[in-house]
Write a structure and sequence with these properties.
Number of domains: 1
Shape: elongated
Mean pLDDT: 90
Low-confidence stretches: none
Number of strands: 12
Number of helices: 6
Order of helices and strands: HHEHEEHEEEHEEHEEEE
Strand order of the largest sheet: 1-12-7-4-2-3
CATH superfamily: NagB/RpiA/CoA transferase-like
Oligomer: single chain
């Protein structure tokens, strides 16, 4: 018997006759975490990633949006974004697809910002998931402009990744995962923001 054959024979003899059953159930939201604790954790993670986070009620949302967009010359929105979100903003609002889809050049214009919703937010990782729903639009909208304002409702916040993926209505949709402003570092660890997406991320957490 060669050394190879001897090793394989020992492996075969060491294996149990019946393979143990491994549970494939993923952990979901821990029951001991309250909704308030999840929101606090999400905000903490987002702030740590250098995002600007505000909390507000549904009635305060238009004023909060206008305040965060103060000085912004123009705003793009997805086709299904509620008009009330920009109710207090006084600048021009361009809706994607009305009358034509916005191009990269349109969205890359100086001072352009975009306002979207999200599909779900993950507290443990501080991640916002956009799934191209009508209030989120095409991936182009949230990746090209230098400023992204995302509206997150407290009912959309879950603890971890498994619970977040379970919330995605259509897994075939293109997903965009946002964890803070776009940032990268070179070999000397010099941080550069805005390379792969918006340089500024504002998040409005709306109490349901």
């Amino acid at each position: 018997m060669s050394a190879r054959e001897e090793i394989l024979a020992r492996i075969r003899s060491a294996r149990p006759a019946v393979a143990p059953q491994v549970s494939r159930r993923y952990r979901t939201d821990p029951p001991e975490q309250t909704d308030g604790e999840l929101i606090d954790l999400l905000v903490d993670r987002l702030v740590d990633y250098r995002a600007t986070v505000r909390r507000c009620t549904a009635g305060e949302l238009p004023a909060a949006v206008a305040e965060l967009l103060s000085g912004v010359p123009q705003v793009a929105v997805p086709p299904g974004a509620p008009a009330s979100w920009l109710g207090s903003y006084r600048g021009p609002v361009v809706r994607d697809g009305d009358p034509r889809p916005l191009t990269v050049a349109d969205l890359d214009a100086p001072g352009m910002a975009v306002v979207t919703g999200c599909a779900v937010a993950i507290a443990q990782t501080g991640t916002l998931i956009l799934d191209a729903a009508p209030d989120q639009g095409r991936r182009l909208l949230s990746l090209v402009p230098d400023h992204h304002l995302c509206v997150v409702h407290t009912g959309q916040v879950v603890a971890g990744v498994p619970a977040a993926l379970a919330r995605i209505a259509d897994p075939t949709r293109p997903l965009t995962l946002v964890s803070g402003p776009s940032a990268t570092s070179d070999i000397e660890l010099n941080r550069v923001e805005g390379v792969h997406g918006p340089r500024r991320l504002d998040v409005l957490v709306v109490r349901d």
